[in-house]
Amino acid sequence: MDETRSHWLATVERFRRAPHEPDDGQMWSRSLETAGRDELRAIQDEKLRAAVPYAYECIPFYRQRFDAIGLAPADIASVDDLGLIPLTTKQDMAADLAEYPPWGSYTAVDDATWLERGWQTFMTSGTTTGPRMFRYTDFDRRTWEWANARAMWAMGFRPGRDVALIAFGYGPHVWLWGVHHAMNLMGIPIVTAGGLSSAMRARLIESARPTILACTPSYALYLATLMRDIGIDPAASSVQYLFCAGEPALSVPATRARLERVWGAQLHEFYGCTEAAPTAGAFTCAEITAEKDTTVSMHVADDTHIWEVVDPVTDAPVDDGVRGISVVTNLLSEASPQLRFVVGDYTALTRERCACGRTHTRALGGFQGRADDMLNVRGVTLLPTSVEDAVRSVTGVGDEYAIEITTENELDVLTVRVEAMPGTDEALLAAAVHREVRSRCELRPVVEVLAHGTLPPTERKARRVTDLRCVGSTQP
Fold first, then answer.
1. Per the CB 3.0–4.6 Å rule, which of 28, 313, 337, 441 could disulfide with 153?
2. 417 touches 440 (CB < 8 A)
3. Structure confidence by residue, pLDDT tens digits, 154-195
4. Cβ-based burial of 10 (10 A; exposed 0-12, middle 13-18, buried ≥19)
5. Cα–Cα distance for residue pair 154/152, rounded to 1 Å
6. Which domain holds residue 123?
7. 410 and 282: one domain?
């Protein structure tokens, strides 16, 4: 086991090029980021041949799954063999955790490894199957900060010019910690605001003058409203970059437009998950965000993860350009090198080179919401982000909204509650929201217009959908 672990870690380390500082002013690790498709596939193949034996020997969950179907690690010689490995879902992990508390058997960190090499624990948000705790090692910290620095370098963040305000509580969730350590590596100073009230954060933006604001997209809108209420124009502030994660924003055109307009800043995004892609599993670049009139996309680093898109019903892989749900294999981690983990967000992949010069796979349209969040209302299936895009495209609608689904006379009723900005004609606003939802979602909603400030402000990850057709089924 020790030999297999050592081989895996040495393989990861060998492909961590430019580990401490960038190669040049445009790319952190130029030889990796501009590698040809054949070289990227060769890197994936070599790392996979080391990752699979490591997972088999050091992670009981995978050993049991392989043995159950007669699959041997040697059977996985390249990415072409990846489909032989069964998909792993959040539900699989939840069942395993129930049997093997408190950590589950799907981790490569046992108690001895944790005491010798442990760094920090992180917890999933728990919106689908309940929260799960993961133990990560100091090796993971080093690979995370490097991968995240590469991504933020692509966004255009630079030492000597930028200052970041991280408007997250420093709790058990993974994103801000990886960002914090990566900014330390990059030499970008951080204004810590985790324990401050939103009002204090608003004042801190005025006094500390950060150029980067890191938070959820919902919180960015809330903070902008709060700033305006105390006489500070967010668009005139020092903030030049909104750096968001936790919810779709780039992939919701009206939300992206509203964020960039309110702040007068460029919107950038990270995408990933605590289980298998806690680093920058996907990220934007400066060229992508500079273009406002084409379909957005996000880079995925082919040397650190293998991303697939599968059909949400059959689990079969789909062709590039075809929408399905996201699946990831981690080629970077000591603690959690998960194999074919279903993250479950809708996207489509392309291998076309980006305008920035990077050659890696991109997610077309970004990641548009999870299959778990998909709603079926009167036979129409839709993601909550479709309603969000409709609502936020209407002038005069405030930043907060809520969706409720009920049953009346055995028919589903979709109710959309919005807030009217002061001075807005509520009847005209209701008609406009009804028209946009009907046009984009093919449903006739009930629209309720509320006074501005009625709905609770979103200061963390937004939960806007309540499905009352089944008691207790609240969607994230």
1. 28
2. no
3. 999 999 999 999 988 777 778 889 999 999 999 999 998 888
4. exposed
5. 5
6. 1-371
7. no
